């Protein structure tokens, strides 16, 4: 399990989630971006966050070398399936996608997207996560409606 601390939050990513993120890295410049949603559970005080599911890119997603647009309908189906089959424990936590780079830095488009998701999604939590996967790093961002707090994990694929 990969553990990341941001402010007073302890974020845990299961090995399955990290394996998915590592599998879809853009290791070649010509490869398109990949992405999806992340789901999991929080403690009642939302100080402990467990990311236990990450969707994989499907045939309906649109992507380019520097862009990824997920299929909203498919994402909603996954969210509902996970919620139902976990007796309401698994919920939508945020988004993940890749960048064709060494360093994990969110673009202004990434920040705008996550702010829009926070503002428009019907969520059961008081934050939204943004994971950006690069060749060597994992950016973990936590947006609380006002500010994006973050941490970066280097060589995250080698940590497990």
CATH top-level class: Alpha Beta
C-alpha termini separation: 7 Å
The outline comes out as globular
Work out the strand percent.
35-45%
The major beta sheet can be summarized as: 8 strands, mixed
What is the CATH superfamily classification?
Cytidine Deaminase, domain 2
- The helix/strand order is EEHEEEEHEHEEE
Overall mean pLDDT: 86
Give structural notes.
- This protein is an alpha+beta fold and 160 residues long.
- It has a single domain (2-158), classed as 3-Layer(aba) Sandwich (Cytidine Deaminase, domain 2).
- The chain has helices at 15-23, 72-85, 108-120; strands spanning 2-6, 9-13, 35-42, 48-54, 62-64, 67-69, 91-98, 128-133, 137-143, 148-154.
- The strands form two sheets. An eight-stranded mixed β-sheet has the order 1-2-4-3-7-8-9-10. The chain has a two-stranded antiparallel ribbon with strand order 5-6.
- It is globular.
- The N and C termini lie close together (7 Å).
- The model has no long low-confidence stretch (mean pLDDT 86).
Give the SSE map.
Elements: E1 2-6, E2 9-13, H1 15-23, E3 35-42, E4 48-54, E5 62-64, E6 67-69, H2 72-85, E7 91-98, H3 108-120, E8 128-133, E9 137-143, E10 148-154
Parallel strand pairs: 2-4, 7-8
Antiparallel strand pairs: 1-2, 3-4, 3-7, 5-6, 8-9, 9-10
Question: How is this structure best summarized?
Answer:
This protein is α+β, with helices and mostly antiparallel strands.
Quick tags:
160 residues; alpha+beta; Cytidine Deaminase, domain 2; eight-stranded mixed sheet; two-stranded antiparallel sheet; 22% helix; 37% strand
